[in-house]
Design goal:
With 244 residues, this protein is an alpha/beta fold. Helices cover 33% and strands 22% of the residues.
Length: 244
C-alpha cells in the first residue's frame, strides 16, 4: 500500500523530500488510510480515519524501550535464552522481520550485533528515524550495534549471514491491551498479512550459522508447518528453535 508523507515543520521539508525520494512516498493524501508525518521532533505514522488512535513512532531512548532495558530481566529473558546468550557469548543476529525494532533493541542491549531487515518502506523509515534520533543519546553504544536494511528478507537474506536469524512474522493477535490493539490495527491496515512468511524459514536457515529462532503466539502452528527442535515458552508466546 502506498503511503503519503507530509511535513508539519517547514524547516524539515528538505528532509521530507529526501524520504519521499528514498522510499517512494507520495504527497497526495487522497483516501490513504495511513499517513507518515514528519514533525519537528520525529517521523510518525497516523491512521487518517481514526485520529484518536494516536501516532506510532520509534523511540529507543524513553518509554517502553527504556523500561525494558532497565527492568526487562537481562539475559534471563526468554528471547535471550532462545537466541543463545550465555556468559561471554554474544551471537550476531539478523532480525529478518524487524518491525519497530523492539526485539532487535533488546538483543543489542544485551550485547548482540543485530542486522535489522524490514521490507515495508513506511516501517523502515520509522525505524531509520528512531535509530538516527538515538545516536547521540545515552543508548548510543547500543544503537551502534544495530544496522538497518530495507527490503524483503527472502531477497536480502541470501547475501547476509549471522550466527542466529530471528523471525517474528505478522500473525493475528488476540491480546486485548490498548497498545497492541492500536499498533496491530494500524499495522494490519498498512502491512497486511505476511503471505510469504513460510518461505522465510528456508531463507533464514541459509543465512544462519547455528540456529533460526521464530517467535510465535502460543496458539499458532509452527512456521511453514515445520516442527522445531525445541521451544522456549512465555505466557502468551513461544520461541521455536531450529538448529542448523
Amino acid at each position: 500500500m502506498a503511503v503519503p508523507l507530509i511535513c508539519e515543520s517547514p524547516e524539515r521539508e528538505p528532509h521530507a523530500e529526501q524520504l519521499r525520494q528514498r522510499y517512494g512516498f507520495g504527497r497526495d493524501l487522497g483516501d490513504a488510510p495511513c499517513v507518515l508525518v514528519l514533525t519537528e521532533a520525529r517521523l510518525e505514522l497516523r491512521k487518517t480515519d481514526e485520529p484518536k488512535l494516536g501516532a506510532i513512532f520509534v523511540d529507543f531512548v524513553e518509554g517502553a524501550a527504556a523500561h525494558r532495558r532497565k527492568f526487562g530481566g537481562g539475559r534471563g529473558q526468554a528471547i535471550a535464552k532462545a537466541v543463545g546468550l550465555k556468559k561471554g557469548a554474544n551471537p550476531s543476529v539478523i532480525d529478518g522481520t524487524a518491525g519497530l525494532g523492539r526485539d532487535a533493541f533488546v538483543l543489542a542491549t544485551l550485547g548482540c550485533t543485530v542486522t535489522l531487515v524490514e521490507r515495508h518502506p513506511a516501517v523502515a523509515a520509522l525505524l531509520a528515524d528512531g535509530l538516527e534520533r538515538a545516536k547521540d543519546s545515552e543508548v548510543a553504544d547500543i544503537i551502534g550495534r544495530m544496522t538497518l536494511h530495507h527490503g524483503p528478507s527472502v531477497e536480502l537474506l541470501p547475501a547476509l549471514q549471522a550466527d542466529v536469524v530471528y523471525l517474528d512474522p505478522m500473525y493475528p493477535h488476540r491480546e486485548k491491551s490498548a497498545l497492541v490493539k492500536k499498533e496491530m490495527r494500524i499495522f494490519q491496515t498498512l502491512v497486511g498479512a505476511d503471505l510469504d512468511a513460510d518461505a522465510l524459514l528456508a531463507a533464514a536457515k541459509a543465512a544462519a550459522k547455528y540456529k533460526v529462532v521464530v517467535k510465535r503466539p502460543d496458539y499458532a502452528e509452527p512456521l511453514a508447518g515445520v516442527k522445531p527442535a525445541s521451544s522456549v515458552p512465555t505466557k502468551k508466546n513461544r520461541f521455536d528453535i531450529y538448529p542448523i
